[in-house]
Design a protein that fits this description.
The protein is of the alpha/beta class. Helices cover about 55% and strands about 15% of the residues. It has helices spanning about 1-30, 50-65, 85-90, 120-130, 135-145, 180-190, 200-210, 220-225, 255-260, 260-295, 305-325, 325-350, 355-359; strands at about 35-40, 70-75, 95-100, 145-155, 160-165, 175-180, 195, 215, 235, 245-250, 300. The strands form 3 sheets. A 6-stranded mixed sheet has the order 7-6-8-5-9-11. The longest helix has about 35 residues, at about 260-295.
């Protein structure tokens, strides 16, 4: 009887100790949970650009078992759409979602990590980033601002823009008020266009009201979702200025260094996995939207040869001028071109389009 009493007392003590240990472990786990503010430059519910950030956030939370999660703020909700990386740099937020060239005012070399006129397509760009030294250069550019960025997706080749009137020559561009992003806007300015970079929510109302005469946004999926086809029925394709526009996740470097190594890996891998999903989403749903827009009477056109030639020359002048004034821009440009040139030759020989056009 005495032995049985001692056994029960011992068992109770072990149970209590186990409960205390479990409670202590749970408290420690709770203490380890990290919640970061994550503003995006885009409407968080928009297809493609919005689902990019929500998919990334979901992956990180699931892969980390809830140890790292984010409160997402839609475009303009917490910070202005073009100031996401500014907020990350200042530490106002720990992490942000944007496209690199929205911060190109800090360093024009950031254009190469979004897209540049007559540049790489989506698959070429990620190849350069991961295997051609592109990520290392991106880290070098961002180090000046205390930011670490990861490629998280791509829209694929975009539309050149929606126009209310046909463009038959370079002269037709002169005097147009056009919403256009990136270095393409600078090239358009050389041809007499008043290029304006409006944040996404302002594109449709400005186009509808007549404040702008033409507008480029992304491609069929998002252009249709934003209603640009309700204002004009002429869409020029493909985008000379955005052959493969990238999205990114940018982290404050101090916040990044504070993360345990396993959470750093999770953030990086979640961004990469989301990039694959996002390009697939754009590729699939752009096709659906393109078909619908054609059925609705949208006239998809290509710019005349003289317009393309003028845009190519203007783009070259813009890039050459920037390379003269910025050593880091020049360094990134040389690396970019070192892969783009042979990649273009390769695509011209091995691209599936070679056979599709002949069939």
């Amino acid at each position: 009887m005495m032995e049985r009493r001692k056994f029960l007392q011992c068992a109770a003590a072990l149970t209590a100790a186990g409960a205390a240990t479990a409670t202590g472990t749970a408290s420690a786990a709770d203490a380890e949970k990290i919640v970061w503010k994550l503003p995006t430059s885009f409407p968080a519910k928009a297809p493609g650009v919005g689902t990019n950030v929500t998919s990334f956030a979901r992956r990180v939370e699931e892969m980390s078992g809830g140890r790292l999660s984010f409160k997402i703020y839609s475009s303009g909700e917490l910070v202005p759409p073009f100031a996401v990386e500014d907020a990350v740099q200042k530490g106002t937020v720990e992490i942000g979602h944007t496209t690199p060239y929205y911060a190109a005012g800090k360093n024009p070399a950031l254009h190469f990590f979004s897209t540049v006129p007559f540049g790489m397509n989506a698959t070429e760009q990620v190849a350069w980033l991961r295997h051609g030294g592109g990520q290392k250069l991106w880290d070098e550019v961002n180090a000046e601002r205390g930011i670490k960025s990861f490629y998280s997706g791509n829209s694929g080749t975009q539309s050149a823009g929606w126009f209310k009137k046909e463009i038959t020559s370079v002269k037709d561009l002169s005097g147009l008020n056009m919403r256009i992003a990136g270095l393409g806007g600078e090239a358009m300015r050389k041809l007499g266009v008043n290029a304006i970079l409006l944040p996404p929510p302002e594109i449709f109302p400005s186009f509808k009201s007549g404040a702008i005469d033409a507008a480029e946004w992304v491609g069929p999926l998002l252009d249709q979702a934003f209603g640009l086809n309700k204002v004009a029925n002429i869409c020029y394709v493909p985008a000379f200025h955005e052959p493969g526009a990238a999205l990114c996740i940018s982290v404050n470097l101090e916040a990044w260094n504070s993360l345990p190594e396993d959470l750093q890996h999770i953030v990086e891998e979640a961004a990469l996995a989301t990039s694959v999903e996002t390009l697939a989403q754009f590729d699939y749903f752009n096709v659906q939207a393109f078909t619908q827009l054609k059925e609705q009477g949208v006239d998809f056109k290509v710019f005349p040869d003289d317009v393309v030639a003028a845009l190519k020359q203007a783009s070259k002048e813009v890039i050459d001028d920037l390379a003269k004034d910025n050593e880091l821009f020049k360094k990134v440009y040389e690396s970019y071109q070192a892969f783009l040139e042979p990649a273009t030759e390769y695509a011209n020989v091995f691209g599936a389009e070679v056979f599709r056009q002949r069939s």
